[in-house]
Amino acid sequence: MNDITVIHSDAEGMREALKEAAKAFRLGEIPIGAIICNKQGQIIARAHNLRETTFDATAHAEIIAIKKACQKIKNWRLCDLTLYVTIEPCPMCAGALFTSRIKRLVYGATDWRAGGCESVFNIVSNPYLPHQIEVRAGVLEDECSAIVKRFFQQRR
């Protein structure tokens, strides 16, 4: 990946994640997008949902982005990295974020039905676990929520 985009703010990071969500939308996938940045703000991984395309229940944007980031830096520990994702990660993805030791999570809209970070479950900041992730929620929340709503309205 030769992406030299540098993120200067959480809003910029979420706009890049929304670009990934739009790719998923065009594929008929639930439009969730994610990017991972290093501490200099450089995007090192981009991903969007691919469950329908790959017939893989684990092909969530966050999981794909984590795999790409690990390959890029040649390490499973993502200690100094930030993940931007358009919707609050599910419990599976929250577990992957915890396991990868990601430093920071920024997400757009809350998932009140299956969120794994703050709404339904609190996996990433659970004080009983040995690693807590810094979380910022609600970045470009309206835009992140709108693309998912539009997707499901079109499917009905």
- Series of secondary-structure elements, N-terminal to C-terminal: HEEHHEHEEH
Number of strands: 5
Spatial strand order of the main sheet: 2-1-3-4-5
Q: Percent helix among the residues?
A: 25-40%
Report the portion of residues in β strands.
15-25%
Low-confidence stretches: none
User: Given the structure, what is the number of helices?
Assistant: 5
Based on CA atoms alone, the radius of gyration comes out at 14 Å
The structural class is alpha/beta
Globally, the shape reads: globular
Calculate the terminal CA-CA distance, rounded to whole Å.
Answer: 37 Å
pLDDT averaged over residues: 95
How is the biggest beta sheet arranged? 5 strands, mixed
Secondary structure elements and their pairing?
Elements: H1 10-27, E1 33-37, E2 43-48, H2 51-54, H3 61-73, E3 82-87, H4 91-100, E4 104-109, E5 134-137, H5 141-155
Helix pairs in contact: 1-5
Please tell me about this protein's structure.
With 156 residues, the chain is of the alpha/beta class. It is built from five helices and five strands, in the order αββααβαββα. It has helices spanning 10-27, 51-54, 61-73, 91-100, 141-155; strands at 33-37, 43-48, 82-87, 104-109, 134-137. The chain has a five-stranded mixed beta sheet with strand order 2-1-3-4-5. α4 (91-100) links the parallel β3 (82-87) and β4. α1 packs parallel to α5. The longest helix is centred in the first third of the chain and has 18 residues, at 10-27.
Can you tag this structure with a few keywords?
156 residues; alpha/beta; 5 helices; 17% strand
Provide a concise account of the structure shown.
The chain has 156 residues and is of the alpha/beta class. The protein is 38% helix and 17% strand.
